[in-house]
Amino acid sequence: MVIDAFNPEQQRAIEHTFGPLRIVAGAGTGKTTTLQQRTVHLVERGLAKPAEILVLTFTNKAVAELRERIDSAVSSRWPGGERVDIDTYHAFGGRVVSEFGAVLGYPADPVVLTKAESWIILWQGVDEIGFEHIELANLRGGFGTNPLATILELGSRLSDEMLTVDDLQCWLEKADNSTRNNELRDYARALRYYQQRKRELGAIDYGDQIMMACALLDRPDVASSIGSRYRFVMVDEFQDTNFAQSVMVQRLTGGLHDNVCVVGDPNQAIYAFRGAAPDNFDRFASESFPGTRTLPLSDNYRSTQEILDLANSIWEDKSDPYRGNLRSATGASGPRPLLIEAERLDDELAYLARQIKELSADGRDYRQIAVICRKSITKRLVFDTLRRYGIPAEIVGGQSLYETPEVREIISWLRAIGDPGHDTAFAYLVLSERVGMDEQALYDIAQQRKRGESLQTTARRLVAEENAPPELLSLITTLSRLVQRSYAGLEPLMADIVGLRQSASDPIETENIERFVEVVTTFAGSRLGSPDLQDLLAFLELMLIAGPEEEAATGFDPQAVSGVTVITAHAAKGLQWPVVFIPCANANDFYNQGRRRSEVLPWELSHDEPGRPERADFSGDARGQKDYEKAIEAWGKARAKEEEFRTLYVALTRAESLLYISWAKEHPTRSTLSKIHPALADTGERCQQRTAPPAEGNPVPRTLASVAPRLLEQLAPFLTANGQSPPELISTLRQISPEVEISLENLLSAWSLFESARDRLNRQLDDFALVAAAETQPSPSSDGFFVISFTQLESWNRCPHQYLLRYVRGLPGEPKRWATQFGSDLHQALAIEAERRLLGLPTSVDSLRASFAGEDGIGGKRAPGEHDPIEAYLRSPDASAEVLLVEQPFTLRFGDVALSGIIDRVHRLSDGSTEIVDYKSNKRAATYDQIRRGLQLPIYLIACREIFPEVDPPPARAVLFNLRHDLRTEMTWTDQELAGIRNRIVTTAADMCRADPERHNASEANCRWCEYRYNCRFSQYRG
Length: 1023
Ligand code: SF4
What we know:
By secondary structure, the protein is of the alpha/beta class. 48% of the residues lie in helices and 12% in strands. It has 42 helices and 23 strands. Strand 6, helix 13 and strand 7 form a beta-alpha-beta unit.
């Protein structure tokens, strides 16, 4: 080997022989080459035979790559075919368990459970586990985070931290009865069941492989056997290891030597959300192997110096000697990165597409370009824009197999066959490319639905009445054929369904379908029973909830991409492109603003991390607990912020010669302006600054109709109260909302219109809304009133398209199956109690408890150990107040709008004052700000004051009482604020009346929880 071929830093690392070594390898510095050459060097110098060297890495792909490179280099130096032992952490752990497991009584040849099988075990045990605190409806599938996913994540986190269920149990015994801890108690119970089932089946899971290997390596006999087998250990990507993996590495030498070399880059540690412990790198030198030699690699062979200068500059903490030191090994130089600022997101994306077109026109191959996004949803936005501009592009990675349109369609066939009442599945088929009907056609079917009929039943009836379009006839005929054929198992049914699709020309689509068929085939031959279609549907339901972690859609081969690569920063790690675009580099989309990641495992249980506050450092009282929680929160945020910076660093360092970073102030679904990513706020001369021009077709300035509703609320009180002049008003608005700044032009151009409305505004704020609404001529309902319910108003505020689909078009959505029983039982019990008091009938605690428990006696038992909601109620002033109104419906009129709702209760307290109370039992209590921003309580106040004069004196305040949390939040509003809210309702109602089918609040967060997320054409839910 010619060591001179390497740079001095690499040479030092390659030539290091005995003793612990830590190679801090910056991005693009030839880490893998160094690791490979060090292996060859050890063999060449006769310090170890190939088989005496162990190399560990993360993925099978990395194993294959290393194997190819090391084998070919070693074979010429060590004839005879002996090979270096290269494996993944998990596979190596599994081998230790297979070889030595008997000494600890582990099964001789354990079955390693797939993730799907772990799910099935838990799913099958739901009834046996005996959950006390989790509402079972959540376990039966449905929206949101399914507790089964959380339980398996907790099991995996326990393994990551070398903890057992007993450790968790011990901690819980001393923990309080908060909702979270009670849920953890259920999770611990479920994990016990899971462990027991694994034992019965002679099975282990991935987490067990490392945990058991660690336990075995803790035994002197096993440790010395392994330690003497491998004289040198080399560990790749050490920054991504979790705590247990780092312990396994430490124990591999059995204390016989310390020839361990770890390679990695702590600045690229971006997998804490998967359990990686970024502090492993430090602990390796400070605790595991004191005396470790640390060698940096800083000569970068990938990027120009201009790109490296920017990447070096982003760190806030400049004291770390291994940060900010990348330099171009080849002296490559190029243009400074471009930092592009846009007013609006569509301006930004259009600019990005135009730049890519220009690069292509200059001869750049699309395959040399990558767009690296922080969030999956940004990938979709970029991809759609590129398509609109006719640019070939491919979205890469991060999508659940089950959420790809091709697999979704197959699942919809399965559901429509196995569950004819599954309206979403049927709607999905109606709207699918194969059937080819549109939203209007679906609406027509829904309109002809008889009471209680499913969509499929309606469609069948229409076909029977010969009243169906040919596409629907064809769909029903196909469905009937599939239902009537008796299949011997799931596989032939799958074959028929897959055969319905026109042969897919897209190879990724074809591969996803093939992989899905494989999933079903594996499921059909499961070691855990012989499942039928209903079992398969239940399993798929779980997989759909589990998300991409369970079964990612077809992976990515950078060589096989035929256009621009659109990828997330996490998936891009380890890759590089000549040209890189980083869009949406704002503080909302590329930086989570230091929000703390929610942790399923209590912090107190995980291994000590530097700087983490310890409970023992705070006083033992309630105050101390609060201070401790605050300190943990702050620490968690700082930790999350560090990881966000590292993620940006990874994205920046993927670029070889051209780097474009862009961001926009305004996002269509956000009411506030974004700021640039904090790491890019002060790039100075390191970047060329650009401004993206408005995208074609963007009206500038926008119409008053789009400006006025958002300004209305802020304007009105000032106009009314102060009669300010335009400049005063503008400066006031600037103070109250930076968002107004961008609309200044619009505001000024609209000023004359506002002026003409000013006098009327002073008298009646509602008129002002009509000025704005008049622009698009709302159409009133037939009786002259536009009647809306409070629930509709809430739906509209969430997303206007959701309102349209649910209330105007009446389309079916994904069934909501989350538990509401607890809340409705409680609500009803309180209403009955209040009714009795109103009627002068006797009441008692027993009768209240009995009606909460319900006939089946379940209600009252739902949350033992939590705040007892009945106790909370009895302790409150409500229990002794004089009831005035109970479950009182109302209809409020605002000009042409009628708004209806139901007030839970109005009562008079002992001091003679009256108040409105709304009872809640949500697991997550609303914050003060959320309640303040909501419309519900102020609307109730307005209604009560205007419609029920018998409530005397009129209520001055409204209360939101979360009984589950014993949290009673009282609020008052000034008359002026209530007038503003009235005004808001009129404006909103005018918009609702128009029900513009193009209007929506699509965003990843909104659509994720929406019942139309699969069928809505604006949906940004990507699984
Ligand atoms: S999926 Fe998104 S855009 Fe569509 S209705 Fe729901 S929230 Fe609105």
